[in-house]
């Protein structure tokens, strides 16, 4: 059974040899990551399985060799205190230890 081979780190027994699992470290890394994801997806308990958004993010990360970045989180700053100001135009205040 595939899940047993994944658990026992024996993916080489179920992977098509023409994919280069044994000869290409990058391919081996990707297939191992896919195996880990497959193991998570095959859990019998729904709570232990990743949601499809997480599966997609993981697959994109695997495909991009870890360079995939999810969308940046947008923060609503309208509710922040009035004394929070962006320093776009004015330079920051000088340190009391500066020699100017």
From TrEMBL:
Q: Where are the transmembrane segments?
A: none
Q: Does the keyword Transferase apply?
A: yes
| Keyword Disulfide bond applies | no
Gene Ontology molecular function terms on file: ATP binding; kinase activity
Please, which domain of life does this record's source organism belong to?
A: Eukaryota
Query: Which keywords fit this entry according to its UniProt record?
Result: ATP-binding, Kinase, Nucleotide-binding, Transferase
What PANTHER family does the record point to? LEAF RUST 10 DISEASE-RESISTANCE LOCUS RECEPTOR-LIKE PROTEIN KINASE-LIKE 1.4, PROTEIN KINASE DOMAIN-CONTAINING PROTEIN
Protein name, UniProt field: Putative serine/threonine-protein kinase
Protein's organism:
Trifolium medium
């Amino acid at each position: 059974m595939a899940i047993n081979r994944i658990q026992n780190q024996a993916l080489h027994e179920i992977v098509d040899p023409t994919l280069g699992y044994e000869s290409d470290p990058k391919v081996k890394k990707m297939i191992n990551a896919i195996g880990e994801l497959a193991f998570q997806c095959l859990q019998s308990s729904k709570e232990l399985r990743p949601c499809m958004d997480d599966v997609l993010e993981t697959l994109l990360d695997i495909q991009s060799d870890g360079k995939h970045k999810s969308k940046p989180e947008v923060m609503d700053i309208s509710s922040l205190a009035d004394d929070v100001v962006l320093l776009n135009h004015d330079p920051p205040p000088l340190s009391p230890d500066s020699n100017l």
